[in-house]
Design goal:
alpha+beta; Alpha-D-Glucose-1,6-Bisphosphate, Chain A, domain 4
Length: about 190
């Protein structure tokens, strides 16, 4: 896994990548099931889909923010692109690409999100979510997706003592959930 954050003219671009040991078709199909994204994306409260429009609700410090986005490209097993529409709290656009891994053992996922950090009171809360730690948050969500796809659940320490370690205010534990509704492991892709 790797992530990068760049800034140019007030626009922030966050990119991240991970390899998942499942077929390109399985990985795309699971990601394309937008309403299930909260199972592995820690801060996503809900995603509802109506045609090509997605309504997102995201948890931020002190509450939540919501926006509508439209799918601008959807090429089966290859790429999904989106951008916000209307008066979004956080205007952004993004792309997720799915490519066969270079080693031939799964799928490489590449995520790129570009946005302008908002201003005002809402901006402070959103900045904590999409600010300097955004690359790390995307990295964590991709790691959770990898667990979901490869093992069928997301590791959790829910109910276990934490000891003296500091707790990230954004780390929300998720109970084990049933494995994704896909057929048997991809042929030729090790589990």
């Amino acid at each position: 896994m790797a992530y990068d954050i760049q800034e140019s003219g007030g626009l922030r671009v966050v990119s991240a990548a991970i390899t998942v040991r499942r077929s390109q078709h399985d990985v795309y199909a699971e990601w394309r099931n937008f309403t299930e994204l909260p199972r592995f994306m820690q801060h996503v409260q809900s995603v509802t889909e109506s045609g090509e429009t997605l309504h997102w609700v995201i948890n931020v410090p002190g509450g939540s923010v919501a926006w509508d986005a439209v799918i601008t490209a959807d090429i089966t097993d290859q790429v999904i692109r989106w951008q916000t529409i209307g008066s979004a709290d956080v205007e952004h656009r993004g792309e997720i690409r799915f490519e066969p891994s270079r080693q031939g053992h799964g799928t490489e996922i590449y995520v790129t999100i570009s946005y302008r950090p908002p201003a005002g009171r809402l901006g402070i809360g959103v900045a904590k979510l999409v600010g300097q730690g955004q690359g790390r948050k995307i990295d964590i969500d991709l790691h959770r997706f990898k667990q979901w796809m490869e093992v069928g659940s997301v590791a959790s320490t829910h109910g276990q003592p934490r000891g003296e370690a500091q707790h990230d205010e954004w780390e929300e534990e998720q109970e084990e959930v049933p494995s994704p509704a896909t057929d048997d492991r991809a042929e030729g892709v090790p589990a």
